[in-house]
């Protein structure tokens, strides 16, 4: 259990640094969100959060959500999605999504979503899943989970752009209310 807790702390730290606040440790991300691995390890250690190279590789390889990815040559690392930094563009190609995607949220947010649809909030994109179970787990992190069905295919047919992150999460700018099916309601 202690190793798992250490890995979780490291994952949370990397999420902060690679998604939201690289300046916390004086790290620079390039325009596509990549950071030099050696520089990350050095600056994390100087910040008081040392990460062994082997631990970093294990975290990237075994993270159940594949939150992070190495470049093909292994010298750079980035968060797969979830950035709040407006300067980061993952440069993911636009793709046609499946007909239906899912969004997990907490029940306390449903009223707001019914009024204004799905918005990215502090992040760059709305996150969508291909699996209801994944969306349920995401929603459960914030309270009583609610899974919304998103008619992504219909939205895409109207010209709405979708991207798929390296970890399989679908990203889009926003989802209007009329393309969201709420639990217990008809289409």
Automatic annotation (TrEMBL):
Cross-referenced SUPFAM superfamilies: ADP-ribosylation
Keyword Zinc-finger set for record: no
Highest taxon, organism lineage: Bacteria
Keywords recorded for this protein, A-Z: NAD, Transferase
UniProt cross-references to Gene3D superfamilies, sorted A to Z: 3.20.170.30, RNA 2'-phosphotransferase, Tpt1/KptA family, N-terminal domain
The EC number(s) this enzyme carries: 2.7.1.-
InterPro entries xrefs: Ptrans_KptA/Tpt1, RNA_2'-PTrans_C, RNA_2'-PTrans_KptA, RNA_2'-PTrans_N
Pfam families assigned: PTS_2-RNA
One GO process term, biological-process aspect: tRNA splicing, via endonucleolytic cleavage and ligation
GO terms assigned for molecular function: NAD+ poly-ADP-ribosyltransferase activity; tRNA 2'-phosphotransferase activity
Similarity-based family: Belongs to the KptA/TPT1 family.
Record function comment: Removes the 2'-phosphate from RNA via an intermediate in which the phosphate is ADP-ribosylated by NAD followed by a presumed transesterification to release the RNA and generate ADP-ribose 1''-2''-cyclic phosphate (APPR>P). May function as an ADP-ribosylase.
NCBIfam families noted in UniProt: PRK00819.1-4
PANTHER family per UniProt: PUTATIVE PHOSPHOTRANSFERASE, TRNA 2'-PHOSPHOTRANSFERASE 1
Protein name: Probable RNA 2'-phosphotransferase
Organism: Pseudoduganella dura
